[in-house]
């Protein structure tokens, strides 16, 4: 057999397998009319933007649970229900009663005030008072696998650490850059090594970071893993400069050194006193969880998760007289896709079980997904993968898609197979600088060591009348996270259907495969679970 014949036979086998694979599922039962109906309800003004803890979110959760029950999915929440209770704690540092005082040799160093200084409340204690020497730790990154360590030779025990927030070296691979630029990972590492407080130096206005939400662990008053951070202060570059008074380098010099990836960590010659008073508010909300039971005696106890966040931003600052942030494309569309994918799957039993998860508080920091991962309603070791759905432009016919996270695990194969089956081109992440992989619910599963994927639309249009890149840019700049993300947009429901079919095919393939999804050897996320 010559090479030409071998290639032709390989293609025929692939095409034949793809036809059979798509015919196993009644994909035509996923209809545009159903997508519109779900979205029209979930994004209606009646639900007031589906903010966690609000009546609107409760209505949305009951709607999704009713859909799951009607199609015969098993409840997988608390106590035989479709709901997993999640308690959130919103913290707000009390301005005027929180202070940062810096001194050198017993003399106070004046700091700028106003929008240049703000405070981060402690998630567990209403009052925190810490006084300690200050140490600057560059970007506050410890990445031994990349031979980068801002903590080399620096002891932070009993000290207040100051660092540049929200940044990582541009030389890092994209996903490591996303992980290490996260202030949560910076704070967690600092606290884990004995720091008693943090000073985050931000390039943005400090006041935008003062409120945060965390989940609380069951039967405990302490915050969960997303909420273990010390109280702290957030300073702009202008406010941070006095911290370096008398130090061996000025703030301008260390900033330049950090940008050049030069080691720039050292003890400063100042002490700081952080006095932070915090106001708490408890928010009661829930995830919605249901299961399509598998058939294989060995595999049915394992679960492929299909997830989509149900919440949005609720009511907020009015724009053109509208203060309801409806969240039609972020993320009523994905909940609609998940519901109809689940309905389609009820016609075909899979070997593994499929768990459908509509999460709360994604917009607050992936909190509902993170809570589920830490307190799953099924054994965590039996969660084999997460296929996450989060938004879609749905404003132009897609030609290409990107599987964010696919390159890290064996999920790459079912993703590419599904794309080929539906005639879609696979492209790399079209906007890697946005770090979208870190900003959606699948990331909570990834950090827990569970292979995950988030299929994001590409920027190429199948119709030359549509400029996908321009449409996406305009949407992100004028519609995203605003009251204008409502049902008045020119949504192409046929393409919403196609994306639902794509995610369903990936889920189905993983649920049928005897092999459990696995990280690729040596992959960054194959390491033990990360904070």
Can you put this structure into words, describing what you see?
With 531 residues, the chain is an alpha/beta fold. It has two domains: 31-72 and 297-523, Aminopeptidase (3-Layer(aba) Sandwich); 91-281, Glucose Oxidase, domain 1 (3-Layer(bba) Sandwich). The chain is 29% helix and 25% strand. The chain has helices at 3-23, 32-42, 55-70, 174-181, 183-192, 237-240, 251-259, 328-345, 367-374, 412-421, 442-447, 468-478, 493-512; strands at 74-75, 83-93, 99-104, 107-109, 117-120, 127-137, 142-143, 148-149, 160-164, 197-202, 211-215, 232-236, 265-292, 303-309, 314-319, 322-325, 353-359, 383-389, 400-404, 425-426, 452-457. It has a 17-stranded mixed sheet that branches. A two-stranded antiparallel sheet has the order 7-8. A two-stranded antiparallel sheet has the order 15-16. Strand 15 and strand 16 (322-325) form a beta hairpin. Helix 1 packs across helix 10, helix 2 (32-42) packs across helix 8 and helix 10 (412-421) crosses helix 13. The chain is globular and about 75 Å long. Residues 1-17 and 221-228 have low confidence and may be disordered.
Question: Which descriptors apply to this entry?
Answer:
531 residues; alpha/beta; Aminopeptidase; Glucose Oxidase, domain 1; 17-stranded mixed β-sheet; two-stranded antiparallel sheet; 13 helices; 21 strands
């Amino acid at each position: 057999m010559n090479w030409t014949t071998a290639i032709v036979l390989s293609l025929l086998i692939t095409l034949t397998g793809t036809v059979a694979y798509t015919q196993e599922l009644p994909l035509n039962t996923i209809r545009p009319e159903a997508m519109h109906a779900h979205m029209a309800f979930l994004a209606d003004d009646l639900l007031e933007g589906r903010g966690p803890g609000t009546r609107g979110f409760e209505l949305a959760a009951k709607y999704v649970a009713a859909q799951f029950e009607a199609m015969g999915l098993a409840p997988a929440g608390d106590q035989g229900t479709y709901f997993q209770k999640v308690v959130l704690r919103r913290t707000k540092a009390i301005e005027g009663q929180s202070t940062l005082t810096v001194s050198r040799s017993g003399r106070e160093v004046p700091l700028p005030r106003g929008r240049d200084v703000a405070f981060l409340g402690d998630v567990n204690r209403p009052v925190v008072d810490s006084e300690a020497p200050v140490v600057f730790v560059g970007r506050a990154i410890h990445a031994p696998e990349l031979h980068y360590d801002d903590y080399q030779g620096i002891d932070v025990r009993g000290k207040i650490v100051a660092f540049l927030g929200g940044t990582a070296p541009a030389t890092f691979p994209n996903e490591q850059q996303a992980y290490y630029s996260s202030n949560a990972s910076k704070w967690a590492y600092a606290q884990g090594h004995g720091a008693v407080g943090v000073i985050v130096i931000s390039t943005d206005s400090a006041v935008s970071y003062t409120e945060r939400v965390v989940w609380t662990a069951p039967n405990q008053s302490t915050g969960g893993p997303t909420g273990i951070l010390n109280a702290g202060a957030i300073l702009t570059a202008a406010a941070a400069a006095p911290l370096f008074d008398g130090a061996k380098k000025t703030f301008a010099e260390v900033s330049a050194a950090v940008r050049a990836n030069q080691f720039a960590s050292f003890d400063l010659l100042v002490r700081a006193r952080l006095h932070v008073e915090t106001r708490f508010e408890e928010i009661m909300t829930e995830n919605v969880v249901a299961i399509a039971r598998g058939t294989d005696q060995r595999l049915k106890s394992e679960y492929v998760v299909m997830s989509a966040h149900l919440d949005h931003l609720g009511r907020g600052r009015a724009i053109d007289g509208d203060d309801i942030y409806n969240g039609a494309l972020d993320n009523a569309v994905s909940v609609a896709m998940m519901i109809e994918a689940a309905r389609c799957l009820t016609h075909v039993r899979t070997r593994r079980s499929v768990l459908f998860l509509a999460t709360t508080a994604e917009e607050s920091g992936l909190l509902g997904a993170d809570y589920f991962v830490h307190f799953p309603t099924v054994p965590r070791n039996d969660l084999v993968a997460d296929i996450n759905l989060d938004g879609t432009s749905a404003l132009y016919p897609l030609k290409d898609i990107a599987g964010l996270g696919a390159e890290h695990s064996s999920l790459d194969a079912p993703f590419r197979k599904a794309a080929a089956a539906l005639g879609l081109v696979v492209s790399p992440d079209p906007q890697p600088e946005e770090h979208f992989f870190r900003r959606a619910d699948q990331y909570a599963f990834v950090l827990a060591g569970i292979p995950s994927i988030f299929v994001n639309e590409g920027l190429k249009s199948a119709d030359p009348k549509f400029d996908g890149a321009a449409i996406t840019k305009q949407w992100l700049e004028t519609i995203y996270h605003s009251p204008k993300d409502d049902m008045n947009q020119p949504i192409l429901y046929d393409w919403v259907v196609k994306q639902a079919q794509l995610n369903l095919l990936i889920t189905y393939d993983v649920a049928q495969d005897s092999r459990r999804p696995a990280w690729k050897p040596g992959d960054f996320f194959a390491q033990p679970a990360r904070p």
